[in-house]
Amino acid sequence: MVNYYDILKVSPKATGTEIKSAYRRLARKLHPDRNNGSEATALKFAAIAEAYEILGNAKERVKYDRRLVDIQFDGNGNGNGDSLFSSANPHAKRWRQMVYEKRYNDIIDRMIAEERREALALQRFIFPLVALFVSAFFFALVRPNIFLPDSFSEWWEMLIRITVVVLFVVGIIHIVGRIREAFDRYGYDDNILHDSVLDDSEIPTKYYSRYSMCTLIIAGTVLCVGAGLGIGLIFDIRWSSSPYLFSYSPTVDVLLYPPIFVLLVDAIHGLILTAEG
Questions:
Q1: Backbone angles phi, psi at 104, to 5 degrees
Q2: What pLDDT, in 10s, does the model give residues 115-127?
Q3: Which bin fits 43, alpha (ψ -120 to 50), beta or left (φ > 0)?
Q4: How far apart are CA 20 and CA 184, in angstroms?
Q5: Which DSSP symbol is given to 78?
Q6: Spelled out in words, what is the top-level CATH class assigned to the domain 4-108?
Q7: Is the dihedral of CA 257, 210, 48, 53 positive or negative?
Q8: DSSP state, 19?
Q9: Which of 145, 157, 178, 214 could form a disulfide with 247 if both were Cys (CB 3.0 to 4.6 A apart)?
Q10: Residue 138 has pLDDT above 60, yes or no
């Protein structure tokens, strides 16, 4: 049986990220376009592509690992190879069965851990994205006028403005960081070697082009801002008891506060995960 771990030069205990990195490294090195169409290199490239197709998929990897274990223990706890594994001694058989069960349990535990890491990674993108859309709609609807009201004249008011700007910049950097993480994990670039084997038809369904992801983020934000402004202005929503809310026209606050809100939501989410972990 072909050992895909040897082909990708990774340990059987390697994480999904490590397997992905190993595949990318080898694929860039062995891609036919970089080796003048060498047949030998093309065969190696096909081999690492096949290995990644199995090991890069959590469920397929579990099936493959179980086959490896079954081959070693021939499915009945009867090992092949050295004398200990092939011994008929009842103590040796019991030991083989314990090793066999432990390896199966290790496979399942690793799959569960990998699925948890994938779920957490997805949350690190989904939570900020949803927070961005919701806050963009909300602040466009409310149209606050807190940042630049005419009454601001005291030093502490200027300090508040500086604090808001700093949090806005930090929020933007935070959002960009989350987007870059999502691009690396879930997106591919058509202009460079990506995670597909040879062409777009073989890209795993959970991956998307970076162009489509950017379009989703930008279009979603614009639509949420437009919907909030449209609803607020069309229905002429006012709040007479608070002059700092529902201004007659969009203000700079509509742009400033969504990144700050995303930063806050993500910080709370991080604290919750830390407490649970």
A1: -65, -45
A2: 788 788 888 889 9
A3: alpha
A4: 11
A5: -
A6: mainly alpha
A7: positive
A8: H
A9: 145
A10: yes
Q: Where are the domains of the chain?
A: 4-108, 120-276
Please check whether residue 81 is in contact with residue 25, taking contact to mean a CB–CB distance below 8 angstroms: no
Alpha helices, DSSP H only, in 143-252? 155-186, 210-234
Ranges 40-44, 130-134, 146-150, 225-229: which has the least confidence? 146-150
Query: How is the chain split among helix, strand and coil, in percent rounded to 5?
Result: 70, 0, 25
DSSP string, 123-146: HHHHHHHHHHHHHHHHHHHH----
Q: Give the separation between CA 32 and CA 43, rounded to whole angstroms.
A: 9
The arithmetic mean of pLDDT across residues 55-69, rounded, is 83
Q: DSSP class of residue 188?
A: E
**Which residues lie closer than 8 Å to 134 by C-beta, 6 or more apart?**
224, 261
Distance CA 216, CA 251 (A): 24
Q: Given pLDDT bands bounded at 50, 70 and 90, which one contains residue 159? A: confident
